[in-house]
Amino acid sequence: MRYNGVVARVPGKVNLQLSVGPLGADGFHEVTTVFQAISLFDDVTVASSKAGDGVSINIFGQTASGVPIDNTNLAVKAAQLMIEKYDLPKDLAIKLKKEIPVAGGMAGGSADAAGVIVGLDSLYELGLSRDEMESVGATLGADVPFSICGGVAIGTGRGDQITPALAKGSYNWVLALSGQGLATQSVYKECDRLREGLSIALPSVSEPLMQALRAGDAKALGKSLINELQPAACSLRPALRLVLDVGNDYGALGGVVSGSGPTVAFLVSDDEHAMDLTVALSGSGVVSSVVRASGAVAGARIVESF
Ligand code: ATP
């Protein structure tokens, strides 16, 4: 071990596509999703600590409020899993500097788990491949492998089987955040309720969307954004429809609820357009805050060793 600690920087994500298959016998839905990693980051520090201290966690940053500080925190779960699996020292101090919204459909908890996995691989020089780290991550949550991978990728299965996708260009996002999160499980449950009696096809990748990404065509991408959980998220949180309307009225290239929501992601053409929409959303009274981000960015990576 050359260092006492490392810092991993991990991005949040938006789902450019989220198609949801029928409810399976195991209680899960098969999904096909296209992720894009965007420039909102959690910084995850892992450092060795005094013998007997065990795993400790300390959380700060803009979105720290309400994040659990016990063993239910995904970062702690990731540390316990890695310690067990690779027989690592049991005393570890984790620090999370959070910028990714909590319970916002942007994979905040998954990002922190990914940061711990990549951080411990580096700290203890385990030499794990990205694939190995992604499979460890998949046991913790469906979005963890993508948080490790970053960029643009297709997720199948539960969204945890990741294939990087060919994508060109850089995209500007305006994100409308809600003060209160939505629990992923409740949104899936509402989705099942709304679909009762309907026959649901197996999900597949949207060809127009992939074509837009290959061409780096933001306008075409805006038109292809799709989230089959959106009706359920809007049903549980009707104000989201108003948020989507503001984006439409102000000429967003496209707008979509990210993942299970309630964050709404708007694709815009340039900085000026982003500014107009930010002002309109902020003044609308239907969102708690608005942030800007761009994508695609890299997945979890080490930015500091000490
Ligand atoms: P996803 O997009 O992967 O469905 P999300 O972004 O909607 O997830 P998270 O931010 O991961 O949601 O938070 C979901 C819940 O997980 C929170 O309400 C919180 O109680 C719990 N949680 C556990 N660990 C963390 C963490 N490190 N950061 C944020 N939330 C965490």
From TrEMBL:
Family as reported in the entry's similarity comment: Belongs to the GHMP kinase family. IspE subfamily.
InterPro entries: GHMP_kinase_C_dom, GHMP_kinase_C_sf, GHMP_kinase_N_dom, IspE, Ribosomal_Su5_D2-typ_SF, Ribsml_uS5_D2-typ_fold_subgr
Assigned EC number: 2.7.1.148
Name of the gene encoding the protein in the UniProt record: ispE
NCBIfam families (alphabetical): ispE (TIGR00154), PRK03188.1 (NF002870)
Family matches, as Gene3D superfamilies: 3.30.230.10, GHMP kinase, C-terminal domain
Active site: K13, D143
SUPFAM superfamilies in the record: GHMP Kinase, C-terminal domain, Ribosomal protein S5 domain 2-like
PANTHER family tied to this protein: 4-DIPHOSPHOCYTIDYL-2-C-METHYL-D-ERYTHRITOL KINASE, CHLOROPLASTIC
Function of the protein: Catalyzes the phosphorylation of the position 2 hydroxy group of 4-diphosphocytidyl-2C-methyl-D-erythritol.
Name of this protein: 4-diphosphocytidyl-2-C-methyl-D-erythritol kinase
Keyword Kinase: yes
Keyword ATP-binding: yes
Gene Ontology biological-process annotations: isopentenyl diphosphate biosynthetic process, methylerythritol 4-phosphate pathway; terpenoid biosynthetic process
Sites where the protein binds ATP: P101, V102, A103, G104, G105, M106, A107, G108, G109, S110, A111
Keyword line: ATP-binding, Isoprene biosynthesis, Kinase, Nucleotide-binding, Transferase
Catalytic activity entry: 4-CDP-2-C-methyl-D-erythritol + ATP = 4-CDP-2-C-methyl-D-erythritol 2-phosphate + ADP + H(+)
Residues of the GHMP kinase C-terminal domain: 209-274
Domain GHMP kinase N-terminal positions: 73-151
GO molecular function annotation: 4-(cytidine 5'-diphospho)-2-C-methyl-D-erythritol kinase activity; ATP binding
Pathway where it operates: Isoprenoid biosynthesis; isopentenyl diphosphate biosynthesis via DXP pathway; isopentenyl diphosphate from 1-deoxy-D-xylulose 5-phosphate: step 3/6
Top-rank taxon, per record: Bacteria
